[in-house]
Amino acid sequence: MTMRVLREPRMDHGIPPMPEAAAAIGAVEADAEILRTPSGEGSQIWRVWGLGSGKPNLVFFHGGYGSWIHWIRNVPFFKQHYTVYCADSPGLGDSDPPPDVQDADSIGTVIANGLKQLFPNPEDRFDLVGFSFGAILGGHTAQYMDQRLRSFTLVGAGGMGLRRPDGMPMARFRRDMTHDEFKALARNNLGILMLRDREKIDDVAVLMQMLNTTRAVTKSRNISRDASLTRVLPLCPAPIAGLWGELDSTTYPFTHERAELMRRVQPGCPFETVPNAGHWAMYEEAAAFNDALLALLQRDLSATDSTN
C-alpha cells in the first residue's frame, strides 16, 4: 500500500557543508508530502506538491545518478498548474534499491506498480516527463500502464542506440577527497555533462551533484548505452513528445536523429529544443524550458490519444 510520511531524513554521506544551497533546496521541498511505494525490500520515495488539490497530475522522473532535485527549478512553476509528483527512482536519491539494479525492465515494473498504487482509479490520469535515464525508465514504465497515462514527454533521453558525440571522461568521487576537491570535481563534471555554460553552475547544482552521486546504488551508465528505450517506446499507450536542450552534450549534433526515431514510432509527434541549453535544460534555461513543456502538456491530444 501507499504510505504517507511527513519527511524522509536525508543522509549526510560526508557532503561538504553548503548551508545556503541546502536551504534553497529545502525551501522548495518544504511544502511537499512524502509518499512511499514498494521497491525491493524497502520503499520508493515520491515527493508530491498539491496532493488533494484536484489539479491534473504531472509526474517527473529524474536522470541517472540523480534525484528529485533535478526538477528543483521546475516544481515551483508547475505546481501552479498541476499536482506534481517527483520520483526518486529505485536505488537513487532517497529510494531503496529495486530487486535488480541493472535491468531497466525490472525497474520499470517496480515503478509501474507504484504508480498504480498512487493512482488506484484508472480514471486518475497523469502526464509523465522523463529526463535522460528517467526517460529510459519512463519507457519501461509506460509499457505497463493503461489509460492512466495521458502523455509521455522525453527530455534528453538516452537508451536509443543512436549516434552520440565524443565526450570528455568524468572523474570519479573518492572517499579520501577533501571537501574542496569534492566540490571541484562535482563542478567540473557538471560542466562536462549537464550544463553548456559553466558560469551557470551554482552551489545548488554542485550540492545536488554531490548528494546524488554519493547515494546512487542503481548504476545507469550501462542501461543508457543499450537501445532498450527504442525497443519499448512503441509499446507506450499514450502520445509521446520530445524536448531537448539545443546543445545537449549527450546528443548534439545528432539530436535530429532522436526526433526522427520518435516520429517513426508516432508520426507527427512534437519535438522541441530549448535554445542555448545543454543536457540539463530544465535547470540551465528553466524559464524557457517550463514554457515549452507546459505548451507540450497542454496541447490537444484528442487526435492521437489512444484512450479516447
Name the descriptors.
9 strands, 308 residues, nine-stranded mixed beta sheet, alpha/beta, 11 helices, disordered N terminus
Descriptive notes:
α1 (19-29) packs across α6, α3 (104-118) crosses α4 (133-142) and α5 (179-194) crosses α6 (203-215). It is built from 11 helices and 9 strands. The chain has a 9-stranded mixed β-sheet with strand order 1-2-3-5-4-6-7-8-9, with helices on both faces. Helix content is 34%, strand content 17%. Residues 3-12 have low confidence and may be disordered. The longest helix has 16 residues, at 179-194. With 308 residues, the protein is of the alpha/beta class. The chain is globular, with a radius of gyration of 18 Å. The protein has one domain (3-297): Alpha/Beta hydrolase fold, catalytic domain (Rossmann fold).
Helix and strand topology:
Layout: E1 3-5, H1 19-29, E2 33-39, E3 42-49, E4 57-61, H2 75-78, E5 83-88, H3 104-118, E6 126-131, H4 133-142, E7 149-155, H5 179-194, H6 203-215, H7 221-225, H8 228-232, E8 240-245, H9 255-265, E9 271-274, H10 281-284, H11 286-297
Parallel strand pairs: 4-5, 4-6, 6-7, 7-8, 8-9
Antiparallel strand pairs: 1-2, 2-3, 3-5
The CATH architecture name reads: 3-Layer(aba) Sandwich
- Beta-strand percent range: 15-25%
Radius of gyration, in Å, reads: 18 Å
Structural class: alpha/beta
Order of helices and strands: EHEEEHEHEHEHHHHEHEHH
Kindly report the name of the CATH homologous superfamily: Alpha/Beta hydrolase fold, catalytic domain
